[in-house]
TrEMBL record:
PANTHER family: ATP/GTP PHOSPHATASE, EXCINUCLEASE ATPASE SUBUNIT. InterPro entries: ATPase_AAA_core, Bact_Antivir_Def_Nuclease, P-loop_NTPase. Pfam families: AAA_21. GO terms for molecular function: ATP binding; ATP hydrolysis activity. Coiled coil: none annotated. This is AAA family ATPase. The lineage of its organism: Bacteria, Pseudomonadati, Pseudomonadota, Gammaproteobacteria, Aeromonadales. It comes from Oceanimonas pelagia. Residues 24-318 form the ATPase AAA-type core domain.
Length: 425
């Protein structure tokens, strides 16, 4: 589990520092202020490779560069398999690389990263950790498994053509035909990640979608009874079933590798998820975080899970209010102040609903209304205290208010009281 991250002359701000919660960590802020950047740094700190270094097909997960001339540093600490690890890395400009510690790196457990564009990455402590030969450490194992979006579905191959992963379509079909533990896990994970108890994601019958394609395609059984091929599912469903497959595949491969090594599977799992609400209907946004916190319980008996996610969604923030633990969880917010990015760990105060979160420090909106409504309300508020405002102007303003406000907007009570008192209406 990553514990601390400190950045100097790296990214959008001169300096940043985070002390992560042990369980849930939320990162909010406007576009371009560094949310995805922080997730990339967290991944690199635990795995020591940038995702796009391993898979050049990625358009995200690029190596970060120093902000300006001068010394730059990335300091981090995390709890490894044996002990806590702290390290400070500096940037070597001639090598265009961040320095690493000599010798065998620490083992952070299973690290999973779901990126915004549908790319996925996994660092497996059984398959990606250093190898020992004749008592000497050698780094021959693959540094991580990094999937471009299409590779999640169609499979991942090494440069020499070796199949590293069959991909969602083939694995799902094989698991379903075998009806073994992997498929049972997939069914359970899909159920946990479903939008509600009334709309449960469950596999339908395998199908063929083309006379020219000789492979079976998995389907999702929709609430209205139709089995829809996963390749034809909506963006939201594809996002969640890809995440479900990714979790099951990573865990199954880790468990098998641990068995070959005659080791116990790890109980430490770190999820990094960028824009967790991506493509999801509001009803789904309300359930996804609690689901992700509990999903590993379907795969292992003693999960120790840390979730770090960036979000733009007020519904996500509202949805975690019942589960947010002030001892184990943390909320970080990025703001632009006088031309400079500031990162703060804010106290998590329950807002009660999504509209209140929109006007909170997380999103900094003046109201949850439209821009047009905000402008008209500002005029109306000023008019209420303007002694020179007349009835003719009030009628025109009243008509504009009716075009932008609902009939039950609380401003009407104040407006009508003053308007009647002044004889405007």
């Amino acid at each position: 589990m990553i514990k601390e991250l400190k950045l100097t002359n790296v990214g959008p701000a001169p300096a940043m520092a985070l002390e992560f919660g042990k369980r849930l960590n939320l990162i909010t802020g406007d576009n371009g202020l560094g949310k995805s950047f922080l997730l990339d740094i967290a991944w690199w700190s635990m795995t020591r490779k940038w995702p796009s270094e391993i898979n050049p097909k990625l358009t995200v997960g690029k190596k970060v560069q120093p902000r300006h001339k001068g010394e730059s540093a990335i300091s981090f600490s995390f709890s490894g398999k044996v002990k806590d690890v702290s390290y400070e890395s500096s940037y070597e400009r001639r090598e265009e690389a961040w320095t690493g510690s000599a010798g065998r790196p620490a083992n952070p457990g299973l690290v999973l990263y779901a990126m915004t564009d549908g790319s996925f990455a996994v660092w497996d402590p059984a398959r990606n950790y250093w190898q020992t030969r004749n008592g000497v450490d050698i780094q021959e194992r693959r540094p991580a498994y990094v999937f471009a979006p299409d590779e999640v579905w169609q499979g991942l191959k090494a440069d020499d053509g070796t199949v590293l992963c069959n991909g969602l379509i083939q694995d799902w079909g094989t698991w379903q035909k075998e009806k073994g533990e992997a498929f049972n896990h997939l069914v359970q994970v899909l159920k946990v990640l479903s939008p509600s108890d009334k709309e449960v994601l469950q596999p339908g019958d395998l199908t063929r979608i083309s006379l020219d394609e000789a492979r079976d395609i998995p389907t999702i059984r929709m609430p209205y009874g139709q089995d829809v091929p996963v390749v034809h599912a909506s963006s939201g469903i594809r996002r969640v079933i890809a995440l479900a497959y990714f979790l099951v595949w990573a865990w199954e491969e880790h468990r098998k590798a641990a068995d070959l090594l005659q080791e116990e599977p790890t109980h430490q799992v770190v999820f990094l998820i960028d824009e967790v609400e991506s493509h999801l209907h509001p009803s789904w946004q309300r359930s996804i975080i609690p689901a992700l916190l509990s999903v590993m319980e379907k795969l292992t008996r003693r999960p120790d899970v840390q979730l770090i996610t960036a979000t733009h969604s007020p519904l996500i923030m509202a949805s975690v209010e019942p589960v947010f633990d002030l001892v184990k969880d943390a909320w970080f917010d990025l703001d632009l102040e006088q031309g400079e990015v500031k990162l703060r760990q804010r106290p998590f105060v329950r807002q009660g609903d999504a509209s209140s979160w929109l006007t909170s420090e997380a999103f900094d909106l003046e109201s949850a209304r439209s821009r047009e409504a905000e402008a008209v309300l500002a005029e109306a508020t000023q008019a209420l205290s303007d002694p020179g405002f007349n009835a003719n102007e009030a009628k025109k303003l009243d008509a504009r208010l009716r075009r932008v406000l609902s009939d039950t907007d609380p401003f009407w009570m104040r407006w009508r009281f003053v308007a009647e008192k002044k004889g405007w209406l």
